[in-house]
């Protein structure tokens, strides 16, 4: 994997986390236990700090970045879909950010919420727990059902299992 020290700050990866070799981690980035960081994900802790909590997944092509002296924080079991951008936001526990969604600086996504694919959550926007956010700009459209929250949690457990299996079996091959 591409790990870069920046101004004396180095990425820290829990030994039970999987970070794909084509992911890029720069500077003040911390990856918790049981995380999955997919190929072509870019986590740039050059201006500020990035914290990826236990059991999170950051899928292929995602970008996590932060403004100077700020923190981008993913609380445990966050699920960041393919090509999403999280810039200096706080993502609550058990949240799912859909593919190609954008979450801006200072935004806070409440626990067990889902931000739909391609939604845009603006700077400093506060999303309550347990809701579905859709659109550009993002707006709360309704409360999630218990079944939807359970389905999201199940999806996250699949990525946690993928992290374990990837650590145990993934090998680069030459053909």
UniProtKB/TrEMBL annotation:
Domain of life the protein comes from: Bacteria
Q: Report the InterPro entries cross-referenced here.
A: Hexapep (IPR001451), Transf_Hexapept/Carb_Anhydrase (IPR050484), Trimer_LpxA-like_sf (IPR011004)
Q: Output this protein's name.
A: Phenylacetic acid degradation protein PaaY
Organism this protein belongs to: Pandoraea terrae
